[in-house]
Amino acid sequence: MTEENTKGKQERIFELLAAAGLSKDMSRDELTALVRLAEEKRFSKGAAIIRENSKTRDLYIIQEGKVSIQLKIPVELGKDEVIYTMRDGQIFGELALVDGSPRSASVKAEGEVVVFCFDYGRLSALLDERPRIGYILMRNMATIIANRVRNTNLMWRNLMIW
């Protein structure tokens, strides 16, 4: 990859991190350290990016495309139910990253999808080495998770009213 392509990729990741809300209050130097970890991955339509109950802990941000978040309902019958759709600039995989639990849902590509993946091992090493980045990243992820829980609560409230 040429230096120009590398800089373009880095700028795109900076933009995606900002769009997702992950870069709030990080310095350019801190962001650069984080961006260096991002690995571009491509998935074709129908590909499983994350499988429910798997033990992976990587974090993803969608560069391009659309993914569906799916649950097996009921688990023993194995029927997949789409509960949410995500697009460019959104993150997924944050719950397992934070608490280490098995994946709570599957994530599948709804078409051609390009993501940036932050490998858990490499990310964890960076956060140990640079605790301020870890603090800011976790605080920003907590805000994202809180917003998602709040939106889910509102959705449930609206379903109960009708």
Could you name the CATH homologous superfamily? Answer: Jelly Rolls
> Based on the structure, what is the oligomeric state of the protein chains?
single chain
Overall pLDDT confidence: 92
Query: How many alpha or pi helices?
Result: 5
**Fraction in beta strands:** 15-25%
Distance between the termini: 55 Å
Q: The CATH topology, please?
A: Jelly Rolls
Portion of residues within helices? 40-55%
The number of distinct β-strands equals 8
The biggest beta sheet, please? 4 strands, antiparallel
Helix/strand order, N-terminal first: HHEEEEEEHEEHH
Major β-sheet strand ordering: 1-8-3-6
Q: Radius of gyration, rounded?
A: 16 Å
Estimate the global geometry from the Cα principal axes: globular
Count of spatially separate domains: 1
Quickly name the level 1 CATH class: Mainly Beta
Q: Can you tell me the residue ranges where pLDDT is under 50 for at least 5 consecutive residues?
A: none
Category by helix and strand content? alpha+beta
User: Which architecture does the CATH hierarchy give at level 2?
Assistant: Sandwich
